[in-house]
């Protein structure tokens, strides 16, 4: 299998957040005996997993930054980083973030510059600045592109070079549904018809160098492709989850915290209403649907930054507490406490 990874990334965004580390990268490095993997960034980490754990040796990383200010930091010992991560990553991460912060003042942002700790070539990857060269004859094209509205313009530059039946996956910044639409639009606009491709995802659901997991979207790719990605993901990432394409964004991206709270609320509310009160599931669903729809309408009509002006959080304190029983009672007290803090 030939894999093309489009986008090398830059560590500055992860470092700036202050919440990332190299836990997964260090785990892979120790497992395969290659310390230099321990400080790889996102695409390189996942590429190293494909090469070393899934046995896929033909991997190319494409990014225009390779001909520009691609800066490799060699201030830190891979072995020291691995040792620190066995106990407490924060023993060494503050120094790493500080170094990146200093460099970020002078090294330009992608695609003009990037900050890494290992050069992909040192791990055996092919590197190129040409997406067309990378995708030609590739069986699997893994994209790591900027925000969603820029992706179509990038993809259309190499879409004619994608071979029939190739696997196309995104890793972040764009919903799978939008990713599929991009290829549908390109196919419709092409008089010769663009090749049929299998669109899915290979989404880490977190910073890849932190956690060994991946989310595979079904609904657009054929079953053989989805099964293949799940199998590879289990070998390479450790855990692979298959999800409907529509759920990739809510489950994997920034709104996952909101999704988790909402989903836990629905499940708890359902069990309390049906198992404790004995109400029919249809009734519970009707009421849940009204709650979700009306709160969404409030956000859409008033704006997420102005919701408290139209619905005082205190209004729920005297009503929601009456549902503090059963499965809902396991999570509701914390929610009520959070709402009460917003009334102070």
Structural commentary:
This protein is of the alpha/beta class. The chain has two domains: 2-252, Rossmann fold (3-Layer(aba) Sandwich); 256-341, Hmd, C-terminal helical subdomain (Four Helix Bundle (Hemerythrin (Met), subunit A)), CATH 1.20.120. 44% of the residues lie in helices and 12% in strands. It is built from 15 helices and ten strands. Helix 2 (23-32) runs parallel beside helix 3 (43-52) and helix 11 packs antiparallel against helix 12 (281-302). The termini are far apart. One of its GO terms (biological process) is methanogenesis, from carbon dioxide. Pathway: One-carbon metabolism; methanogenesis from CO(2); 5,10-methylene-5,6,7,8-tetrahydromethanopterin from 5,10-methenyl-5,6,7,8-tetrahydromethanopterin (hydrogen route): step 1/1.
| Average pLDDT level | 92
Instruction: Spell out the CATH superfamily of the largest domain.
Output: NAD(P)-binding Rossmann-like Domain
Structural class: alpha/beta
Radius of gyration over all CA atoms, rounded: 23 Å
Named at the architecture level, the CATH assignment of the largest domain is 3-Layer(aba) Sandwich
Question: Looking at CATH, which topology of the largest domain would you report?
Answer: Rossmann fold
Which strand-content bin applies to the residues? 5-15%
Strand order of the largest sheet: 5-2-1-6-7-8
Helices and strands, in order, run as: EHHHEEHHEEHEHEHEEHEHHHHHH
Name the shape in a single word. globular
Largest sheet: 6 strands, parallel
């Amino acid at each position: 299998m030939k894999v093309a990874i489009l986008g090398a990334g830059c560590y500055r965004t992860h470092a700036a957040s202050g919440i990332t580390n190299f836990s997964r990268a260090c785990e892979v490095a120790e497992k395969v005996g290659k310390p230099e993997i321990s400080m790889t960034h996102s695409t390189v980490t996942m590429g190293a997993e494909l090469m070393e754990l899934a046995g896929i040796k033909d991997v190319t990383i494409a990014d225009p930054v390779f001909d520009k200010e691609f800066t490799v930091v060699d201030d830190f010992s891979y072995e020291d980083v691995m040792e620190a991560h066995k106990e407490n990553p924060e023993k060494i991460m503050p120094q790493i973030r500080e170094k990146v912060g200093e460099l970020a003042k002078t090294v330009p942002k992608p695609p003009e510059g990037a900050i890494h700790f290992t050069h992909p070539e040192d791990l055996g990857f092919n590197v190129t600045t040409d997406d067309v060269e990378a995708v030609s004859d590739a069986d699997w094209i893994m994209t790591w592109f900027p925000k969603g509205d820029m992706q179509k313009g990038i993809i259309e530059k190499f879409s004619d070079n994608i071979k029939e039946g190739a696997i196309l996956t995104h890793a972040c910044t764009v919903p799978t549904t939008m990713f599929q639409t991009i290829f549908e639009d390109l196919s419709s606009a092409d008089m010769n018809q663009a090749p049929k491709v299998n669109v899915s995802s290979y989404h880490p659901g977190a910073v890849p160098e932190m956690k060994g997991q991946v989310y595979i979207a079904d609904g657009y790719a054929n079953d053989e492709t989805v099964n293949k990605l799940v199998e590879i993901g289990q070998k390479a990432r450790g855990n692979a989850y298959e999800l409907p394409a529509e759920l990739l964004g809510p489950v994997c991206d920034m709104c996952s915290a909101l999704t988790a709270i909402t989903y836990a609320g629905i499940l708890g509310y359902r069990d309390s209403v049906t198992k404790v009160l004995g109400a029919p599931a249809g009734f519970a669903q009707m009421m849940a649907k009204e709650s979700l729809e009306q709160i969404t309408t409030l956000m859409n009509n008033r704006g997420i930054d102005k919701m408290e002006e139209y619905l005082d959080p205190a209004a729920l304190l005297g009503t929601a507490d009456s549902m503090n029983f059963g499965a809902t009672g396991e999570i509701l007290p914390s929610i009520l406490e959070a709402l009460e803090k917003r009334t102070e």
